[in-house]
Amino acid sequence: MTTKKLFTVVTIATGLLLGATTHQAAAQQDQPFRAGDFDYGSRFALPDGQPAEIWNPAKKKLIEGGPMIGGTVRATDPRTYCAMAAAGYDFIWVEMQHEAISWEQVARLWRTCPGPAAPGVRVAYANEREIQHATDMGAAVIVVPTVDTVEEAQAAVDWTYFPPLGRRSSGGGQGPSALWNRVPGGYRQTWNDNVVLFLMIETLEGVENAREIAKLPGVTGLFAASGDLGNFSGFGEGDAEYEALITEVATAAREAGIHACAPLRWANRPDFTCFQAGTEAANIRRGAAAEIQQAQERFGNSGAGGSPVTGSGASPLLANLTAECGAITYEADCNAAVEQAATAAASLGAAEQAQVVRRLREVMGANPAHAARIGEIAARAGLTVDSR
User: Fold this and answer.
1) Strand 272-279 vs strand 259-263: parallel, antiparallel, or unpaired?
2) Which of 58, 234, 242, 359 makes the best surface tag, with the fewest CB within 10 Å?
């Protein structure tokens, strides 16, 4: 073959090859975009694969193994919130499910005292508006109630986390722009590693799906809702049927390698590492009762109180009864306080036992619908209390 013919053949072959490549490129351009085939970029990656620093004190406590304890706030007064935020809790659970609080009021609380306890909130439901209001205003702990299905749980994850894990949009707000704008590594870059997401299992459907819910990436923990699991099951603490539900929630969390959460009175139960403590109102009643009891003891010892009295081991029991049963918010918390007081009374002197009995009578008188149950709990613990 001559050089001229060889050149012609090569030219034709090259043209055919280029034409085919151009045709393939055009065909590819004509293909619709597939989000699932897209590789997420590195814009928000930390340098050189550096791990995110944990700046959320609640998340840090969980990583350390707990116990992570959250105080509960139902008030709108920033001074009350600040007192709770500085009391030693790891986060503050602002109640947005059962209180008539506005997001503007919540934003003011967090703006006034963003710490030392991490701002947290129980939202009303798992949707974009509720959760993004919370995160954009500064919440670092999100609690979602009555999660029944994997789909609801996935929605909670979607609106809590930034891409690629979730679908939270970048919309500003005082959280990223003011409260957390100086966190190490940057807010957007480290948010997914720092946020805490608890899903509350409160219904029979939620318990049925708890194991699948717990496996979703992004779920930090399952909260066994002590009150509503009783509400939805018709059984209470100590009943075999109720305890089986609690065990199932704790097992789902443990098997998924996430945290199991509960009310603080369950701190002695195995598997639980995160807890919800009392409200600001209960703390005020508890503190006031202890302070008054101490003053009465000092008055009796050295003031004009007549016969001296010894220091009372009943003081903390009386304070707790006042806090949990003075105005019953959670019946189970009051019942636990009654059982604790009645059990401890056996080791107290006659005068202190009489103080416990007197306080229990006061509680029964103020809460007639609960009086019979309170009497039963006290009797079972070895303390007879009539309602006269």
Assistant:
1) parallel
2) 234
> What pLDDT, in 10s, does the model give residues 152-203?
999 999 999 999 999 999 888 999 999 999 999 999 999 999 999 999 999 9
Would you give the distance in Å from CA 8 to the centre of its chain? Answer: 76
Which amino acid is it at 77? Answer: D
CA distance to 51, 70, 149, 181, 228, per residue, from 261 (Å): 27, 11, 18, 29, 14
pLDDT tens-digit series, residues 326-364: 767 678 788 888 888 888 887 888 888 888 888 888 888
Q: How far apart are the first and last CA of the chain?
A: 122
Give the contacts of 165 (CB within 8 A, at least 6 positions apart). 157, 192, 217, 218
Dist. CA 71–CA 87, nearest whole Å:
9
The pair of three-digit structure tokens given for residue 308, joined into one six-digit string: 């001296």
pLDDT at 141: 98
Contact partners, residue 341, CB within 8 Å, separation at least 6: 317, 318, 320, 321, 356, 359, 360, 378, 383
Say which CATH topology domain 51-270 has: TIM Barrel (3.20.20)
Q: Note every long-range contact of 290-295, with CB atoms under 8 Å and residues 24 or more positions apart, other chains counting.
A: 290/315, 290/316, 290/318, 290/319, 293/318, 293/319
Give the integer Cα–Cα distance in Å for 378 and 357. Answer: 9
**Positive or negative: CA dihedral 259, 260, 266, 269:** negative
Q: Averaged over 32-52, what is the pLDDT?
A: 83
Judge residue 191's burial from the number of C-beta atoms within 10 Å of its C-beta, 0-12 exposed, 13-18 middle, 19 or more buried: buried
Bridge partners (DSSP) listed for residue 276? 70, 263
CATH 3.20.20.60 occupies which residues in the chain? Answer: 51-270
For 313, the 3-state DSSP assignment is coil
Query: How far apart are alpha carbons 67 and 272 in whole angstroms?
Result: 8
pTM: 0.78
Helix (H, G, I), strand (E, B) or coil at 333: helix
CA distance 366 to 212: 44
Measure the CA–CA gap between 37 and 102, rounded to whole angstroms: 41
Q: Of 115, 67, 171, 252, give the one whose Cα is nearest residue 244.
A: 252
4-8, 80-84, 233-237 — which is least confidently predicted? 4-8
> Of 243, 191, 183, nearest to 218 (Cα)?
191
